[in-house]
Amino acid sequence: MKRKSKERIISYILLLTASMAVFITIAILYALAAGAFRFFADERVSIIEFLTGKHWVPSGGTPSFGVLPLLAGTTLAAGGALLFGAPVGIGAALYLAEFAGKRVRAIAKPILEILAGIPSIVYGFFALLVISPIIREIFGASYFNAMSAIIVMSIMILPIIVSVSDDAMRSIPKEIREASYAMGATKWETAVRVVLPSASSGILAATLLGLARAIGETMVVTLAAGSVAQFTFNPLNEIQTMTSYIAQVATGDIPPGIAVDAAFAVGLLLFIITLTINFIASHIVAKIKNGGWRRRRIR
Amino acid sequence: MEKEEDKMNEFKSIKASHFKSKIGVAITASCFLIAVLFLIWLLFSVFSQGINRINLEFLTNFPSYKPDKAGIFPAIVGSVYLMLLTLAFAIPIGVGAAIYLAEFAGNNIYTNFLRHLIQNLAGVPSIVFGLVGVAIFVRFFNLGRSLLAGSLTLAIMSLPTIIVVAEESLRVIPRQFREGSLAIGATKWETVRYHVLPYAMPDIITGIILALSRAIGETAPILFIGSIFAKTPPSSLLDGFLALPLTIFYWTRHPNPQFHELASATIIVLLMILLSMNGVAIAIRHRAQTRREW
Amino acid sequence: MIGKILRLERKEEKQKEEMKCYESDKIIVRNLNVYYGDNHTLIDINMDIPERKITALIGPSGCGKSTLLRCFNRMNDEIEGCRMEGQIIWRGENILDENIDVVELRRKIGMVFQRPNPFPKSIYENVAYGPKIHGIRDKKELDKIVERSLKAAALWEEVKDRLYESAMSLSGGQQQRLCIARALAIEPEVILMDEPASALDPIATAKIEDLIIELKKKYMVIIVTHNMQEAARISDYTGFMYLGRLIEFGETRQVFENPREELTEKYITGRFG
Predict the structure, then answer these.
(1) In chain B, what is the greatest distance between 2 CA atoms, to the nearest angstrom?
(2) First vs last Cα of chain B: how many Å apart?
(3) ipTM for the complex?
(4) B14 and C101 in contact by Cβ < 8 A?
(5) In a designed cystine with B85, which of A64, A144, B151, C185 is the match (CB 3.0 to 4.6 A)?
């Protein structure tokens, strides 16, 4: 019977390790909520002003904590990245799934893996010191500008958009394509009129995952987009995103006190936004992996 | 007469279709090309700016305000220590959780909930983990801005990825491996330990290396915890530390452009480390696949 | 005006010349050999397939009938490692020639597959897909074509009130008839059918068989089937294949009642396959 009780103990230990996921989630929620609570408890701060205010001035004599400039910054940076990255990514995925030969597909996989594996700090370096000067030269933008971050981030999110879209397109069965070819449609017509619409929900999921990635990105925007929180949608301006404000607090540029607590409130908001997007996207991805759309009733 | 015109029109439309097809393929191919060219441009700029700065002194010196004397030795050591500690925390918990989910768990509400939770944790932005690390490890557990706090933070960040990869590696082992062992009266744990885990090991190790290479390149989680003032490598778990990504971060922002070159040199070092780690992972995966008996 | 007349005259001359070589629209197969990699799948096939008739290809599993069928519309091109040698002559041209525009060929030779494979679109969009690709944009014109094709496929009455519902909501037999309607919508001249009723229940099968008999009034139909009784019921000509060779080919009546080859007789009387 000793073996049996040893077995029991082991399975409880393993259950405990698996439940670490719960502990981590609780830790995240506690950390963010406690900090946010401390922030909102301060008499100088109101939730309404936080959610609707257009001025983010965390330090100084009369601090103001309206999060809209940070939200605008995140929207501009991530939205811009998606605007460029999604079409290019979907186009590349279409090419790889429908037109490219074996050899091209073979080198495409490692290339995308390399792009995905490059640390974001390297992308940040590239954005500030290589792309930004070019943007300044052509458009006369300020030293820190959103555009350089947008360009670099759109490439950063390519791997995930391409790989999920590619999966979605490949899951369309061969017979559907054959039906189209047999009617005298070209490869392009088949890809655009049959494969693309059929894979649309997967492509949507890919786009959402790319968006979530861009929203959560810190280093590129911190290094290249600046640290001035202004409510603007002009990419040539300097901006501050939710992530780069938290990074600013981390590097000690912000005096301790309420401004630091504000970082937790912003972090909580960021967490909720990315969680929602990821949740929706993974739901759609799960449906594809189970061949969801393929279910037909053959009576 | 009508039929002939129809034939002409159809001929034209087929030609137009072929033409459109060629253009379409060209456009989508160039989308792919954009990614490739960008990658080449990025790697080229980094290498060309930094390659001159790489020499033995660079790798063994300490940081300094003089660019010609600055080195990344403490950063390298810091990164290595971070990595080892993160491994020490993340592997037992991650693999344990994966074994539980793949082998022991029933199909109940709690386990499905756990799985969803783990998946969602994988998508949490790294800067949020930085906040959590500060609040929980630095403050709550009073570890201060130490190596221990930093590695614990990286560990909880890497856990979801490790669990997902490890669980997948266990799942692909065919049922027969387990059935043979259970049939002669071995317990579940004994079966896993001796008959499943060894075969899943290569894939698990590959996954761990990949999760780790992500962790070593991350700046945001340790931004709060690492310290620019740690001029010497940490000598105890509670010491402050530097790491490669942090060095890159601070030097990139430095007003003196010479430090930009140092930053790109550091990037080269970091990329080389990542390349070798991934190379090892691919080699392990390759060797395992050629020896695979199923 | 004069240009038009001149073009017409040139066309007529060309047509007369073509007519001289081949008197009818038969499909003539000469020395066809097909290889999948090193596998010699079809060996020295020779046959003349008449137009406005139903020709059935029968034989045990793996004898190569589907492969042969897929030669006629060059669908084998989509399979890697497949090599086709020999000639398939139709209307004065060798279908297997490299210079043939496969896309154009497939608009004239349509195909219905073994498993119904409608697009995940509405019933209307499925049938309208072909004509739309051919450049027909006028909604009224498309409506006419859709109605005509669905009627020809004996499906109109059942779906006319729900044309915009998803094709996936139809039963298996209905989906297959939809696929037939889809193939008919582009007005091909030849229809290839690869075991069209094998995935269906007996009632649906009967409907499809009736449909096929109707089709021969306008089209050349080549059908692959593993169901001998079906071949005997509906076809005018039958080809029996075994291990990649065409053992016997002739009028259905003759092949079934008075087979020339011993192998054919064995298969038909059920002694193997």
Answers:
(1) 94
(2) 66
(3) 0.89
(4) yes
(5) B151
